[in-house]
Amino acid sequence: MPDLAPVPSVCVHNAGRSQMAAAFLTHLAGDRLQVRSAGSAPADTVNPAVVAAMAESGIDISAETPKVLTVDAVRSSDVVITMGCGDTCPVFPGKRYLDWQLPDPAGRGVDAVRPIRDEIERRVRDLLAELTQTT
Q1: Catalytic residue status for 5
Q2: pTM greater than 0.85 (yes/no)
Q3: Residue 107's CB: how many other CB atoms inside 10 A?
Q4: Of 53, 61, 52, 46, which Cα lies nearest the Cα of 15?
Q5: Which end of the chain is more exposed for a tag (fewer CB within 10 A), N or C?
Q6: 8 A C-beta contact, residue 44 and residue 13
Q7: 20: annotated active-site residue
Q8: Predicted confidence (pLDDT) per residue in 66-89, tens digit
């Protein structure tokens, strides 16, 4: 797979779903993709249950911090993955947008986060397989 422009994963608080998606993209694609994770209204910290669930998958996101979504991050991307950010995510012609409807892990324990994590991993693997076939 050749290098692509950044692929941001975006959710409202950048404390759960988008952090997991970015971590799986980075873990599975390595340096073949530039991955960003951001939120329209970032929380102060990443959800501890999300950190624990990702650790179970062998991915350490304990040092990650929620970041604010910038217009430039979206503008410079080929693919934008959104998860519940609604109308607050900027839209530019020519960009590919994937809106992944997934439950928000906020306020949930590790047992409830695991199925969300697993679905995000499945979708990331499918996306990477598709990108590999089309490039």
Answers
A1: no
A2: yes
A3: 9
A4: 46
A5: C
A6: no
A7: no
A8: 999 888 888 888 888 988 766 667
